[in-house]
Specification:
By secondary structure, the chain is α/β, with parallel strands linked by helices. The chain is 49% helix and 7% strand. It has 21 helices and 7 strands. The longest helix has 20 residues.
Length: 442
């Protein structure tokens, strides 16, 4: 069979063979890095996505041979450092993903490199602390401490100390911590609601709050509760939870991801067995349960059970709308909305459900922006990547300015905050679910 130029079939993701000792073999890793870097250099279709690919191509173009064989092996890490595992190259750009014979999975190759580096003890303590979102969140929301932390993050001299201690850029906007996390709030009970199944949805939602939704922006989760209950959906919080594991995943700490899975999956699977659908306010957390954990644990039926039952909020609402169970009597128009489509939502292949849902609101125009915001977990706050993150964000920020919207925001609340930071005009981002609540006037 002749070699194909590209792949016209849907990409197929292979399980992540992270338990195999060969996964951490330096020699075979660098052989694969060289093979894939060479193929990427010959294609260059992904150049516009992030800083990883321009970094690779600059290394090649500045080498003595103008090929990958002229790049120093130690410089391969410069590419790895700029990959934040958004998955867009695999899902939207690469023509050589499996089943193509070249079998390129760039994000999981970068993950393998990160995992090997972590196993070799070459990850800084500061990066481990930043990825420990549960512990940092719990400590930072202690009464009295929370006010001190939030105040300190606004003082330039203290931010310089934070830069030295944790490598957080002095100009980066660090998320504030809420004095009253979601799990310390009483969200009440769904009154007089009889769950009405619709398609794959059961009409009962257990919210996985996520670290950000619990410690940083619990109002966002409360807005979600209000919108769901307004649509006669029974709502509760997941009985117990830890961080989904995405920050550790991006660091290459796969054993920590496994420990988070052992804490979360039994609790989530139990709720699925009790008839609950699962929902999370942050796309990265949904992606973790829907894609990455099933690829790490392909034979775990409980993991797959949760993957089949977890939803993006607007995906869920539009599935209900398809069955005429979404209330469309809105009280307030939103005008013009600049909507940033989060990368970790795009790669879930659910379509622009948020845009479709917001456009049900009368006198509302939604303009979608399909570019990376540049935030990407901790990438947008780290000193070593802050400038690159701001450069990535600039086209999105410029587009928001051009639209002259009444509201702007993203399904990823951190992306929304990063766009707000880039604008620096005193305006505030609004999460789409908060805009829904506003339109309902509830």
């Amino acid at each position: 069979m002749a070699q194909r130029e590209g792949n016209l079939e849907a990409p197929t993701r292979h399980p992540l063979n992270w338990k195999d000792p060969e996964f951490y073999n330096s020699e075979s890793l660098f052989e694969e890095l060289e093979r894939v870097y060479d193929l990427c250099h010959g294609c260059r279709r992904c150049n516009s996505l992030c800083a990883a690919f321009p970094t690779l191509f600059d290394l090649v173009d500045e080498s003595s041979t103008f090929e990958v064989d002229g790049v120093a092996k130690n410089d391969y890490w410069k590419v790895v450092d700029h990959c934040y595992l958004c998955d867009l190259c695999y899902s939207t750009k690469c023509p050589y993903t499996p089943p193509h014979e070249w079998n390129i999975d760039f994000p999981h190759l970068m993950l393998r490199a990160k995992a090997m580096r972590f196993q070799e003890g070459k990850v800084k303590t500061s990066e481990k602390i930043l990825a420990n979102t549960d512990t940092v969140g719990k400590l930072s929301t202690i009464p009295v401490v929370v006010n001190a932390v939030n105040s300190a993050n606004k003082v330039k001299s203290l931010r310089k100390l934070l830069d030295k201690a944790l490598g957080v850029h002095p100009d980066a906007k660090v998320p504030a911590y809420d004095p009253k996390p979601l799990r310390k709030r009483d969200i009440g009970q769904s009154a007089n609601v009889v769950a009405a199944p619709a398609g794959a949805t059961k009409g009962k939602v257990a919210i996985f709050a996520t670290c950000f939704g619990n410690y940083n922006e619990p109002d966002l989760a409360e807005d979600m509760v209000k919108v769901l209950r307004h649509n006669d959906i029974e709502v509760t919080l997941v009985d117990q939870e830890q961080c989904c594991g995405m920050p550790k995943f991006e660091l290459g700490d796969l054993e920590a991801v496994a420990r988070a899975k052992e804490a979360n999956i039994p609790a989530l699977a139990k709720m699925v067995d009790q008839g609950w659908d699962i929902m999370a306010p942050v796309p990265s957390c949904v992606l973790m349960f829907r894609q990455e954990l099933p690829l790490m644990f392909p034979d775990d039926v409980q993991v797959q059970k949760v993957a089949d039952a977890i939803y993006d909020p607007f995906e869920y609402l539009m599935l209900r709308h398809k069955e005429a169970l979404l209330k469309t009597e809105f009280s307030k128009p939103l005008g013009k909305v600049a909507y940033h489509v989060a990368c970790h939502q795009r790669v879930q292949m659910i379509g622009q459900k948020t845009k479709q849902c917001l456009e049900l609101i009368p006198d509302t125009e939604v303009q979608a922006i399909e570019r990376c915001s540049g935030h990407d977990g901790t990438y947008g706050v780290k000193t070593r990547s802050y400038d690159a993150a701001m450069k990535i964000a600039k086209p999105v920020v410029n587009k928001v300015k051009q639209i002259e919207a009444d509201h702007y925001g993203s399904d990823c609340p951190m992306a929304g905050r990063f766009i707000e930071h880039g604008l620096s005009d005193g305006s505030s981002t609004s999460h789409p679910i908060s805009l829904m609540r506003k339109a309902y006037a509830i």
